[in-house]
């Protein structure tokens, strides 16, 4: 059972914010390019369909885990999947979260190195990011929730940066709608799914919500749909402006999209955006890292989460420096993407099936 305030609690609102924060991080920058390579001008449809599907998955996920409101991730997994399998899955999730954290750190290092500190070694940039991450996560999930609450609310105004460049866009670039074919649209879903990755963290953080209620499913779905509308709008606006052919040749198409219009006050809006977006990525890092530490804490039954925060600090630092170049980072990201499918799609489906088979008899408390 969870002892109140033992490892920090979060509110329902903070859980919705954390779902948004962990998804709206690194994925938005290259989303249009990765999906447009497959779905062409219909890339936005792939993103929309993917988001709707994920909102349904998270509804099933919360439906199941809400039947065990006083149990942690490993405890309700033990009831539904048997104890040995539960320990194996939770341990695997911990490894996945730590490895994902190191990759995001490396991505952020390259972004900071490209736009702000081109002469600074990656070792130094990574050290600063890891030190910041440890400072945020050492006090547990409560502090992480508050940090992300501030970050998400602070970056919401940047959503309006989508609109100025639309004056140069053309709807012709989005037509004919559906011309790429259903097969291409479906094939465009996997790369867009990777950009939505991270929502599976609800498996870890849900037991720590202090004010659980029947609206958790609805508002969690709305959080996913908010990201879906945001991503769909971003992809559609970029295709309308550049055309899908040009987007496939641009590494970070969203940053180039912002550079189209000259703003009267800020000369280099892409630099301004990238500076603030760095904090959004740090928010993503903090959630992913603390989730991994909580997973290992539940496996090894230690008293404090920060034990693993300090333990994994040198590990994520070293792992972030291992990829030789951006190509290697992309290759490792594909591996993480496949693991994300396992924890984000297959695991929730399996838990739902197991609950329907025998979970109802094992639910200790059905009061949300």
UniProtKB/TrEMBL annotation:
Positions of transmembrane segments: 12-32, 44-65, 85-108, 120-138, 150-172, 221-244, 271-295, 307-323, 335-358
- Note the Pfam families from the entry: Spore_permease
Q: Do you know which InterPro entries this protein is assigned to?
A: Spore_GerAB
Q: Which GO terms describe its biological process?
A: spore germination
Which compartments is it annotated to reside in? Answer: Membrane
Q: Give the range the annotation lists for the signal sequence.
A: none
* Protein family: Belongs to the amino acid-polyamine-organocation (APC) superfamily. Spore germination protein (SGP) (TC 2.A.3.9) family.
Q: What is this protein called?
A: Spore germination protein (Amino acid permease)
